């Protein structure tokens, strides 16, 4: 493919010749996606298809307006708090989110006017305790007494 088009040969015939020669060499055999339908075929044309595909591949989402992003973040913080390892960690997550919500009360956010209520830390802690019951600790068994002669007696004989 590094060769230049010879003078006097049309582009179409030159390209067709290169494709034919590459096919004869087997350069198109075993390509990924061979025999599979073309992705997106039959769907209406979307000018932003490549952006959507890249965002899906990178596991990103479209940016939300400030008020809706705060609401989504609050829901995620509540779920994270319920999955925390300790109750103290769950309360810390809730308090950090409540600080962000209080900050949003002071500064106007972009988007539709949505007032995000504070998350009740006691309610989340109660849910956390319900999801993580404390197993009752069994008392440790008493050490068993050794039967027979003591080690010192046995050692003293030798």
TrEMBL record:
Species annotation: Microbispora hainanensis
Ranges where the DnaJ homologue subfamily C member 28 conserved domain occurs: 14-79
InterPro entries cross-referenced by the UniProt entry: DnaJ_homolog_subfam-C_membr-28
Bias type Basic residues, positions: 146-158
Pfam annotation, one family: DJC28_CD
Basic and acidic residues compositional bias, start-end: 135-145
The protein's name in its UniProt record: DUF1992 domain-containing protein
Segments for region (Disordered): 23-46, 135-158
Top-level taxon of the source organism: Bacteria
